[in-house]
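Checklist before submission:
- one chain only
- standard amino acids only
- sequence pasted in full

Submission:
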Amino acid sequence: MTFRQTETIAVAAAKASFSAATAYRIEQDPRLPSAKREPRERRRPDPLSAVFEEEVVPMLAAAPDLRPIAIFEEMVRRHPELGHGVRRTLERRIRAWRALHGAEREVIFRQTHEPGRMGLSDFTDMGALAITIGGAALDHRLYHFRLVYSGFEHAHVVLGGESFVALAEGLQNALWALGGAPFEHRSDSLSAAFRNLAQDAREDLTRRYDDLCAHYGMTPTRNNKGVAHENGSIESSHGHLKSAIKDALLMRGGADFADLPAYRRFIDEIVSRRNARNRPRIDTERAQLKTLPDRRTSDYEEVGVRVTSSGGFTLRKVFYTVPSRLIGHQLRVRLYDDRLDVFVGSTALMTLPRGRAHPSGKHAQVVNYRHVIHALRKKPMALLNLVYRDQLFPREAFRRTFDVLLERLPDRQACRIMVDLLALAHECGCEAELAEALAATLRANDLPDMAALRARFTPDPAQVPTVVVTLAPLQSYEALLDDSLMGDAA
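Returned file contents:
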């Protein structure tokens, strides 16, 4: 067309390297070939022409969230002649209709984050990874803290559900590991912790959360209930962290750990590796954080309990044994996520592992046989139908031994031998060694011989060596002093 402005049709066509016939055709109709095409009409009848406007559209208008598969199944039920081959056609038609006439959708507004401004907390369930401790499944969650700007992370193993105690402990661990506090802290409203609580209890939980944030100078905020993407900077990080843990478990060759501290060290190592990747940004943000207070605030819940004549107390549907000398006393219990610190007045007594009630609501027991063995020696038959009998045995070998004793001996004799075994483990401090001896006896299909076990584990006073300590006279130490020093002292 440029050559045609100054040349004839034939010359312009020759310069453009096509035939004169093509040049004459373009001269008569300068439109592009794509503009000359007629729109292609349907090659077959529309299978949805009779139902889409009359039935499908009213359903979409009445229930905007209705899934296309549900509409398809309903249409096939109403009109069997449609067949299953129209599913994709219906889905495309619904998608096109919603693009033109559908309801407005949620919009996510990307934010610009400043260093030191916001930290996020959330809990994530770890059941899918099938972690075990000593072969027993570990029902737990991870408390997960993250700084929005730098991506600093901290994870804390939580044995119970979402609670203020778990949040307070995990958050403070994160802040002290970080060395500072952000200006704002956001949580997911502690929805699980608020569940089934009375209004007064909810207000108390909210007050304690506000006090916790105030102690570190943070402004407490919460995302709207059920709107997960408002915590998106940590919700998406949950998946990345769990994927890293899963990969580490595969490289480790198993998900079983010797004890809970070993599993916690495993989690800390993974989180530390992830933080190492963001070290420059973390260092930048750390300089903008608030200074930590002089000390931590309480990360426990304190309750009062009374020790009953059963030799223990019940707290949150769990029965705990304590030394019987405390029967009738009022105790103060500091309730942590994984333990209980027990006080009488202001005197610390002991630390007990925290138990959890059964998911069915049935009461559970945390029993230490050392607390009740002296009473059982007076009433050995009480062991036969004891409510917490299975929890009384400190190791599996003891439980299996009692089952064998009940099978082969009268109940009274079986209970007497079992109580003597527990007493021997307590008095001689040989619980682990005695359990190994009982396991060997069971493998040999024998019954325990109390006389032989006492001879083996009870020390013989005649064989204990007598240690005589001869004290040197005090004057002999003067020889160690320098004569000149002695003269100065004189």
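Reviewer check: The chain has five domains: 3-36, 52-101, 118-286, 302-366, 393-463.
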